[in-house]
Write a structure and sequence with these properties.
With about 80 residues, the protein is mainly beta. It has one helix at about 80-84, and strands spanning about 5-15, 20-25, 30-35, 50-60, 65-70. The protein has a single domain (about 5-84), classed as OB fold (Dihydrolipoamide Acetyltransferase, E2P) (Beta Barrel). The protein is built from 1 helix and 5 strands. The chain has a 5-stranded antiparallel β-sheet, with no helix packed on it.
Length: about 80
């Protein structure tokens, strides 16, 4: 499988450093480990319900997330910021 897929974080346990992502297209749940999170933040964590883009990796036992990037929502500028 090539190319980034879109999904939603189903759950993520900060203490265990693992969780699951539900694919938006096929509805399948895929395992994700904190080491797969591609972020500049010091503390790697995913929030339940967060939209993400990810790549899948298939090993002998299952498909799992290889790289995951949180999709950041663009913040709308307030009227005061637009006037400045």
């Amino acid at each position: 499988m090539s190319g980034y897929r879109k999904g939603i974080v189903h759950w993520f346990d900060v203490n265990a450093g693992e969780g699951a992502i539900i694919d938006k297209e096929d509805g399948m749940s895929y395992y994700v480990h904190y080491s797969a999170i591609d972020t500049r933040d010091k503390f790697k964590v995913l929030d339940k319900g967060q939209e993400v883009e990810y790549l899948l990796y298939e090993n002998l036992y299952m498909k799992q997330v290889d790289v995951v990037k949180p999709i950041k929502k663009r913040r709308r500028k307030s009227k005061a910021e637009v006037r400045a």
